[in-house]
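Allow me, if you will, to draw on your knowledge of protein folds for a short while. I have a record of one protein: its chain in single-letter code and its fold written as discrete structure tokens. Could you please explain, in whatever detail you think fit, how the structure tokens follow from the sequence? The record follows directly beneath this note:
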Amino acid sequence: MNYSRIAVFASGQGSNFAALAQAQREGRLGGGVIELLVSDRPEAPVAQRAQEAGIPSLLLRPKDFDSREQYEARIVEELKQRDIGLIVLAGYMRLITPVLLAPYEGRIVNIHPSLLPAFAGKDAIGQALDYGVKLTGVTVHFVDGGMDTGPVIAQRALAVEDGDTADSLAERIHRIEYELYPEVVAAFAAGKIKLDGRKATVRQ
């Protein structure tokens, strides 16, 4: 399987998209190439980031389609035309249906700001602070039909400091994300990741 042709899905600012695009420019994506940005919010800043990076975009409003399935069918059509091998979710704020999951099973990854399975779903950073944990971190995982329930590929931890706020903790978590996500995508592009049941291994 060729994972080197990549589509990034994003809905917002696109900071992880920017980190991946920079890694590509610097030759740190293991031969991977971002062929497409997909966004469900055409007005989102990530669309401008893609334009500035010279990366083509597919910008669609889900409300313009009769159903989520029809919306995703249009995306799948574009992905197949571009021979996309790996889908990288980077702040894409929609649950994915089987229309997209089925043809790309084992080829969709996401990044989440906690050490899954702890603090899945929205506001993981706020959840961690409210719970009072001493360690949190970042998880890159495969995407399945649930919310942040797919097999874990890589994790990196950091300490929650006394006096941390949501903003201060988020800043440190984002720095880890911008390092870890390109590393995992590069491993995919180089064919170094294997999934056996729920166990993902990364070959050095």
